[in-house]
Amino acid sequence: MHLHPGFYDLFDALPSPFMTVNVMNIVAANRAAKELLGSFIVGADVRAAIRHPAAADRLDNPGAHMSAEAIDLTGIGHPGERWEMQTMPMADGSVLVALANQTSRDAVERMRADFVANASHELRTPLAAIIGYVETLRDADAGDDAALRQRFLSIVDVEARRMLQLIADLMSISRIEASKGDGPSEEIDLAQCARIVIDELVAGGDPRAKAVTLSASSAMVRGDRAQLSQMTHNLISNAMKYGRNGTPIMVTISAANAMAELTVADQGDGISSEHLPRLTERFYRVDSARSRALGGTGLGLAIVKHVVNRHRGRLDIDSVVGKGTTVRVRLPLANP
Fold first, then answer.
1. Using one digit for the tens of pLDDT, what is the confidence trace for 75-91?
2. Which of 229, 302, 303, 310 is nearest to 262 (CA)?
3. For helices 225-242 and 300-310, angle between their N-to-C axes, nearest 10 degrees
4. Three-state secondary structure string covering 136-178
5. What is the CATH number of the domain that holds 323?
6. What does residue 324 show for φ and ψ, rounded to 5 degrees?
């Protein structure tokens, strides 16, 4: 079969591995196939290139070439990778073999499964506590003890509010992910947004809110007001929770080099360097017991990361053990 010379250039430029096979010999292979299986494969027996019984069976059976079912291939490429192979018969009797790397898709599926498992666990813990205390309160002896009843009801209230906050955070992540393809268009002053958040925290009655100081100049960004408010709230709330009592929480907002920068710095115990890359993972906690005791859901920084990503920004976290943590968010200015 004679093909236009440009076809071979296109064939070679395809990002996924492709090969043509005739009577179990590899007639042609593009650059991606050679990088995956080795530069020797052209002219070689396909069974020596793709060392997988299912692949050999498919290619050695002319009646199976038309099958649309993909074959899973493990053991080729780098360790831990999973590839799928599909075949299509060509007019000259050869077979076009296409390989697709499914490793990333598998990783996403694992992340989704882990997320569901973690969310179920996080919800089960307070729910189990609520059920346990309610069952105790049903007991006649406990019901007659006013002090005990009040203590148990307080615990039920705390656990129910924890569940409510967790569900709210889960819904926030879902909404942010659903809107990540839509660039926000409203012009928002990041400094004004921070002032409103701080005022709300002070009005909420947490004494640590009075330790927050704001140094800000106007920084207009294109954004989603609710999401930027939640991002700012989460960062300042984290600093309030994990900064040492009696120490200041510094919030700074500036604009330079076409970027707005929001910085939140606390003086707390700090975080070891090995934890920093994982802080924005859903449900990841450096100290699970302390985080839960302080009312954390393990989703605060995950929400921040999603908001920053949607706004085409950058998130950096620096921390020194024993001194504190500084979080910086950089977002493009609306009118640089």
1. 777 777 888 888 888 88
2. 229
3. 140
4. HHHCHHHHCCHHHHHHHHHHHHHHHHHHHHHHHHHHHHHHHHH
5. 3.30.565.10
6. 140, -175
CA 191 – CA 220 distance, rounded (Å): 8
Mark which of 78, 101, 124 sits at the end of a domain. Answer: 101
Whether residues 34 and 115 share a domain: the answer is no
Written as one letter, the residue type at 31 is R
Q: Tell me the residue range of the domain where 120 lies.
A: 104-178
Distances in Å between the Cα of 306 and the Cα atoms of 168, 186, 296 are: 15, 18, 18
The answer to whether residues 43 and 28 touch, using CB atoms and an 8 Å cutoff, is no
Q: How many residues does the chain have?
A: 336
| Judgement on whether residues 221 and 329 belong to the same structural domain of the protein | yes
pLDDT computed for residue 61 by the predictor: 78
Residue that terminates a domain, selected from 79, 101, 123 = 101
**Domains: count for the chain:** 3
pTM: 0.61
Supply the mean pLDDT for the chain: 84
| Rg of the chain in Å (alpha carbons) | 28
